[in-house]
Design brief:
Elements (H helix, E strand, L loop, with lengths): L5 E6 L5 H10 L5 E2 L10 E7 L14 E4 L5 H4 L9 E2 L4 H19 L2 H9 L16 E5 L3 H12 L3 E6 L9 E4 H11 L2 E4 L13 H4 L12 E4 L8 H10 L4 E4 L19 E3 L9 H16 L15
Parallel strand pairs: 1-2, 1-3, 3-4, 4-5, 6-7, 6-9, 7-8, 9-10, 10-11, 11-12
Helix pairs in contact: 1-9, 3-5
GO molecular function, one term: NAD binding
Protein name: Glyoxylate/hydroxypyruvate reductase A
Pfam family, one: 2-Hacid_dh_C
């Protein structure tokens, strides 16, 4: 029997020790390395990556597949030499559930006036806002109806919110008011009191959350001007435009988990804006124990002659 293919773990920006330990635990019969054995290492069949060093994958002649550690894959395409092999998205119930928890938390926080009451607590002010709409009177619009968006939509509906969804192409989702393409964006924004962004970062979506987008958002609703929640990618948003939209009344509030540059600079005015909630890219933390097992299962299935699943569409960019 042929020796199972080796795995390259290539990450930058954080300590990969936990991922390396989990790979060794889940795949004891495989060689796991953080560096190829010289240029053209023929033993490496799979790469598990996050912001891999540019060019490192293109020198592996027997590379069969690339696995992303995170839900997004734009970090892989920043390597101009990424080879033309299948790219597998990170898909696990744990990752999906964590994202839905974050979305539900932020939606409820804005719905139930959390930012206002935290400010009042800091100032020791006792003042109830009696203009509290019911969930059934509020529509949450989700930009991106992939696996994460669909799960969040289902859980928000269980809480009684109306849910609208926007996607690049037409989709039909039970109980969700769906819109698609550029032609459907105005209709989506016209009904959305809270806009949740879960879009992938692609050339088509880069900078979408900017002045032209905010100018089309709902101005009057049960919560006042619409609220923005971005748990997608930092490259989707223009932070100067978010601040301007908050000041001119196009946006009522914002919860931001991702930023154009991370960590967010200490000098950013977003930190101290009274209607901005900041979290440190923590919406859906990638946990090795949850994400490594399905990767190994895919590798084993592939070696049995079965097709890879959850593949990235290179043309679409996600």
């Amino acid at each position: 029997m042929a020796e199972p293919g080796a795995i390259l773990l290539s990450v930058t920006g954080f300590d990969p020790a936990a991922w390396l330990e989990e790979l060794k635990r889940q795949a004891p019969g495989r060689r796991i390395v953080t560096e190829p054995d010289g240029d053209g290492d023929p033993s490496i069949r799979y790469a598990v990556v996050w912001k891999q060093r540019p060019g490192i994958l293109n020198r592996l002649p027997n590379l069969a597949a690339i696995f992303s550690i995170g839900a997004g894959v734009d970090h892989i395409f920043k390597d101009p030499e990424v080879p033309d092999v299948p790219i597998v998205r990170a898909v696990a119930d744990d990752l999906t559930e964590r994202m839905s928890e974050y979305i539900v938390w932020q939606v409820l926080d804005h719905h139930r006036k959390g930012p206002r009451y935290r400010r009042q607590q800091a100032d020791r002010v006792w003042s109830e806002d009696r203009m509290q709409p019911a969930a059934r009177d509020v529509t949450v619009g989700i930009l991106g109806l992939g696996l994460l968006g669909l799960d969040a939509a289902r859980k928000l509906r269980l809480l009684g919110f109306n849910v609208a969804g926007w996607s690049r192409t037409e989709k039909t989702v039970e109980g969700v008011d769906t819109h698609a393409g550029e032609a459907g964006l105005d209709g989506f924004l016209a009904v959305s009191d809270i806009v949740v962004c879960l879009l992938p970062l692609t050339p088509a979506t880069e900078g979408i959350l900017s002045k032209p987008f905010f100018a089309r958002m709902k101005r009057r609703g049960p919560l006042g001007p619409a609220t923005l929640i971005n748990a997608g990618r930092g490259g989707l948003q223009n932070e100067a435009d978010i601040l301007a939209a908050l000041e001119n009344g196009w946006l009522g509030a914002a919860s931001l988990d991702v930023f154009q540059t991370e960590p967010l600079a200490e000098t950013s005015p977003l930190w101290t804006h009274p209607r901005v909630t900041i979290t440190p890219h923590a919406a859906a933390t990638s946990v090795p124990a949850a994400l490594i097992p399905p990767m190994i299962a895919q590798m084993e299935a592939y070696e049995r002659g079965e097709p890879l699943t959850n593949l990235v569409d290179r043309q679409a960019g996600y």
